[in-house]
Design brief:
26% strand, eight-stranded mixed sheet, alpha/beta, transmembrane helix, 33 strands, elongated, five-stranded parallel sheet, 30% helix, Immunoglobulin-like
Length: 593
Amino acid sequence: MKPEHGLGAVLVAAALLSIARLAAAHLRAARGRRPAAWRTLALAVLTAASALLLYRMLLPPMSAGPDTLVVLTADADGLPVPASQQVIALPEADRVPLGATRMPDLATALRRHPDVRALVVIGAGLQPRDRDAVGGRALVFVPAALPPGLAELQPPAQIAPGARFTVRGRVTEEAQLALFDPAVRIVDTGAADDAGRFQLTGTARGAGATLFEVAIQDVDDSAFSRVTVPVVVDEAAPVRVLLLAGAPNPDVRALRRWSEDAGSTLRWRIAFGGGATAGDAPALDAASLAEQDLVLLEARAWEGLGASARAALLTAVRDGLGLLVHAPEPPSNALRGWLRSAGLAVEAGRGREWRVDAGPDDLARLRAWSGPGSDDAPFDPQLAGEAPPSLGYLPLTGGLPSAGPGAGDMMRWQALGQGRLGIVTLADSWQLPLAGRADLHSELWSTWAGTLARPGAADAAGFRGEARVGERVALCGLPAGTRVLTPDGQAIAPLPDPAADGCAGLWPRVPGWHRIEDGGALFVRGAEEAPGLRMTALQDATRQLARDGAETRAPAPPAIRPIVWFLAWLLVTVMLWALHRTRRGRGPQAAGV
């Protein structure tokens, strides 16, 4: 039941009960003591009038002026409709009230009513075909209530293989939610907050396009409670990493394994002292560093570099290289001074302990979270079930914190020219893969590498909004002649729009993954899929039209202002109270009392 209906029912019931009490008292009284009929009738009329005016005071009726058009859309049934001679119903409106006219679209209605300067839209909102017809007119939106279930969903952007991603969204009521991977295994669970917001985390495996699913737990399956989440794992060019270590240590081995699992191209060098080294790292000159995307430099290795090599590193960073200094011990004054000269002024505090998030308690979920492992280091349920080791680090101040897992003060960075320079103080991260949690080790270093590494080429194409069958999708950044391959094997050429900032329009006909030539994928939902997301999108787009036209002209206010209804209700209520108190019209005995 809608709130206004419930309020009306309560007031009607109260008024009827009061009138019935008056009638019963009038009939039970003896003939000689019975109050006058006019008194009982007046009390009943004033009671009904007071209830009606109270309802109108709380919910004043709207009235549209002669130049205002009332537009009924989907789910408009039961919502208050302003009094107007110009009421139309678009094809999505379920029921057409008396006096409303069916119209095929808003543009047709506006051609038939050329004097319209303002709109009142009632229901789910305007479809894409009707939004351009608004044309800057003032607009008031009376939205319908969202159905219970998933109302918003924000899938992750394109991510790299092995990276963690977050799915965010909103539900209309408190609920427990779960994220399922393509194998229908629960990857993560969580509860919505007071505002209905939630976020769930998953892990991307191999490159390609796949579908996860968000579901509300402990409810019947429906289109409102389960929604697919498109996840595109970008098969980008491998990051070229140069690792420079000051001595053999377990961190070097773990980082070499991380680089191999992440698909990076690694070159490395380890110093043994006395000028002896091992590895295939190139010389630190401008030409060699231009061929790298990220340099992992141990603090001890920096101490062994000459002035020319240090200068070449900073010059390469200004040209776009990413440089991450690993300093698990307090950095020396010389290293801090070198970083400060490059714009990264940091200070290290006293050592702290970082307790690693152990992940899900359930073994099946932990396996989906961590992945199957590799041939020589497969997933070990005994190791995975143990608590990960706590790691030490030095808290840093200054610079910018890195996003992702871990304490926010264990890594700091700063932009330098076209590149980025950072320092991390986490010690003994090699213990994570040794304890069976290579996924946590990979997540840490992949996040830091993604923050600092030289950016690759930008994506060739992108699209705006959610794609749905029968609705226009704007594809931007497409080279001329690019085609889109549909799931049924057809090739569609998007229609370029010179007025749309270099974008082209596509009208999908079938749901599923659409492949864009020269890379890229686009997931298209069915026309009736995820109705909660569709209704939210319609309402958001209509509210945006209302904001855009707010300064043009405001539609007519309610026919009678709320203060007038309040004064009328107050007057009638005072009259009712006064008539109850007066002796006029009472029976003889009652008047004597």
